Amino acid sequence: MEEQQSLTHVRADGSAHMVDVSEKSETTRVARAEAIVRTRGDVVVLLAEGNLPKGDALSVARIAGIMAAKKTPELVPLCHPLPISKVTVDFEPNAADGTIRIEALVKTRGVTGVEMEALTAVSVAALTVFDMIKAVDKAAIIDGIRVLAKSGGKSGDWEAGA
Amino acid sequence: MEEQQSLTHVRADGSAHMVDVSEKSETTRVARAEAIVRTRGDVVVLLAEGNLPKGDALSVARIAGIMAAKKTPELVPLCHPLPISKVTVDFEPNAADGTIRIEALVKTRGVTGVEMEALTAVSVAALTVFDMIKAVDKAAIIDGIRVLAKSGGKSGDWEAGA
Amino acid sequence: MEEQQSLTHVRADGSAHMVDVSEKSETTRVARAEAIVRTRGDVVVLLAEGNLPKGDALSVARIAGIMAAKKTPELVPLCHPLPISKVTVDFEPNAADGTIRIEALVKTRGVTGVEMEALTAVSVAALTVFDMIKAVDKAAIIDGIRVLAKSGGKSGDWEAGA
Amino acid sequence: MEEQQSLTHVRADGSAHMVDVSEKSETTRVARAEAIVRTRGDVVVLLAEGNLPKGDALSVARIAGIMAAKKTPELVPLCHPLPISKVTVDFEPNAADGTIRIEALVKTRGVTGVEMEALTAVSVAALTVFDMIKAVDKAAIIDGIRVLAKSGGKSGDWEAGA
Amino acid sequence: MEEQQSLTHVRADGSAHMVDVSEKSETTRVARAEAIVRTRGDVVVLLAEGNLPKGDALSVARIAGIMAAKKTPELVPLCHPLPISKVTVDFEPNAADGTIRIEALVKTRGVTGVEMEALTAVSVAALTVFDMIKAVDKAAIIDGIRVLAKSGGKSGDWEAGA
Amino acid sequence: MEEQQSLTHVRADGSAHMVDVSEKSETTRVARAEAIVRTRGDVVVLLAEGNLPKGDALSVARIAGIMAAKKTPELVPLCHPLPISKVTVDFEPNAADGTIRIEALVKTRGVTGVEMEALTAVSVAALTVFDMIKAVDKAAIIDGIRVLAKSGGKSGDWEAGA
């Protein structure tokens, strides 16, 4: 059955392994991912629009996302370690919708793609936003964690549908 | 403005800190959280219903989730370290819907709640599922990461609405 | 020789160990530490007084310091792991002097003091400030890393001289 | 304003990011850094001149410094991961002055400089020395953490003034 | 089948979990473990008997073992985090036999035993010894990693047979 | 004395360092290592032959071994960080002998060999097996941790004797 082999991290007998990437060529690879935190409008205002002198709230989540991208191979067991060469994490707070959209971009010169790094960055940034707001909104939800686009590597460029 | 003070991790001037929990009492605390991975039915079958002798696929995600729960204070900058006393991570694959529901339960005897640990467990388990299937479905989405219930501590028990 | 025994991490034959603290009593312990980054006045202005909408520069250093406090037993080989219950990291930029003073406060309910955690917090916050400014001032110096005060524990309270 | 752009880790709006180094060329890069621990002469003797059969005291600090160099991108949020190819950490105890000078050299073949790795090595080695002596000298100070010299990379060689 | 339940980390359906220890009582617990590195007599002499001024070789392995004890819950997926209160790692080089015996003692006040911590300490100390000697003896073997004794906790004291 | 120089991690004065590998050439390198867990036949059956629907027991040890390979430079102080490109961990349970043989293969394109990574993988997989069975067999022993073969690099291929 050909699909069985499609789970690249699983061998023919079903056991997991870290696949061989030693012959893949090193190219510049980029991936973008996003996540949405759904909360209430007043909470979005608290997080993002305070006129406080030191507005650390979203900075904390940004740093958490950037640091998490570097930790991806420690968190996702079969991920290969990669020399990350760029990470950005951005927030789009929308008080009307009560949402905060998070987008990460990760770049490397390496032998595997960086979509797991970008997904890990937005996930941990979203968890950190949740941690900031959980005292005011226990019911917040993290939604729509997905890859937006990736480029570089043999499998070519890919972009998510609208 | 009283709401400003509601972001417990942020001080009056907007700067972040790790709040003082030294006077909180140690009680048994439990939290349950969930996440949904949305993919295709055939991918769910590959992951969960293979008759392979060593079906590691979901085991990898379970272990990743359990280990991530222990790493929560390394990932979420303002989380307090906690002596976790129990973690379970379970999967409910649904081939008809093309979804895998992930639920984690975390327990501690400690001074703060463990909802961040439970959310981190399901998030990293979901990222690991994504990593297993990304070669066959780049468009998979992780949705609905939320707390289901928490108990213990001063703020009392809480359960998510249906 | 009594002084030989004063190096508590070293046994009679000179070999290192992690000393036994299992009989020490758990009390609330606090330590404050500081570090000074010496650079140029214009660099301090860049770091601390920019009217930019998202002034992340010192936030990054604050988060780095808080997270480093939690990593102390991973960095300092003979330190005991401790359940940290509070961390703050603050900055006093002084453009006239070309300095940034960093102060950290760490609190625990535990069996050992937290001066190493407070010192680690200011050291890593200072290294992060250095990393932010190194492109504009390679000659910056981190000075005066020291304990300001500690309280709690059998050895009693202690405060640094002026 | 050109200076605003000089903080390479901060974008035009003030938010932090990990800058793109994917187009920088891989060259051999070296950095040397130092730190001074200021204590009392008798403490320096305890640390460095004991005739004990197993004189682990400074070895512990050396290993801590070497291991910390490898942890730099985990500690300093916007540092890129680098394949470190050499680390040395050396001590110059001076009982007359009551000081211990620590010098680290770090080398890599990579796309960014290694001054942060060398500074992290001396800082953590100094913190470890402090941890060894804190029972006999709470008032010890870590001073003068700075880059001594760096070479390799586009910006050319650099040496600290005397 | 009652034996199935004996694998405490495995639930009735065979899936792994981190078992609940929240109701276990906190007592002082100690474990001792050992490992043997088998190499050649001349290599043991190199490692342990050099008259060099700074004999770091076994110090490196000792520190590695102590630090690894603290990392046990990061390495062994279902281990509970524990506040370690004492660690020692000792070496018995025997040039006649070409062996180095490593013994670790770990102590805690906690709710689970520390045999995994003691075993991890000797294992990583042994791996570090191997790393020191691999250029002169690729064929070295690490043997006999086992618990020597444990005490504390409900299951009572236990000692290995001779 | 030439042998003194054979301990590559130790300098002429006996102090430890991380040796310079910046001039070594990057080649594909492979290492295989093994470990034996000695327990009782009925325990091997419990671990490996249960007809349970989710047989996670050895999966946990496999994942632990794979993740530990990536952590080698964090555990073994003088190891260089390496971009691991493949890891497999396999188990050969033998109920008749009461043993489980563990074999790991690690591959890299890098400047140093990967025998320490392969040894770390089997050691941590073996510790994890021990952790799974310790409630039913405290007297289990981990034996025979050794390199089976290595290839790539200047020193050429090497294979252990039978």
From TrEMBL, chains A, B, C, D, E, F:
Pathway: Cofactor biosynthesis; molybdopterin biosynthesis
A GO BP annotation: Mo-molybdopterin cofactor biosynthetic process
Enzyme Commission (EC) number: 4.6.1.17
Catalytic activity: (8S)-3',8-cyclo-7,8-dihydroguanosine 5'-triphosphate = cyclic pyranopterin phosphate + diphosphate
KW Lyase (keyword) present: yes
Record keyword Cytoplasm present: no
Start and end residues of each Molybdopterin cofactor biosynthesis C (MoaC) domain: 18-153
Tree of life domain: Bacteria
Residues annotated for substrate binding in this entry: L78, C79, H80, M116, E117
Gene Ontology MF terms: cyclic pyranopterin monophosphate synthase activity
Record CDD domains: MoaC_PE
Keywords: Lyase, Molybdenum cofactor biosynthesis
Catalytic residues (UniProt): D131
Known function: Catalyzes the conversion of (8S)-3',8-cyclo-7,8-dihydroguanosine 5'-triphosphate to cyclic pyranopterin monophosphate (cPMP).
Recorded family membership: Belongs to the MoaC family.
HAMAP family according to UniProt: MoaC_B (MF_01224_B)
Quaternary organization: Homohexamer; trimer of dimers.
UniProt-recorded name of the protein: Cyclic pyranopterin monophosphate synthase
Name of the coding gene: moaC
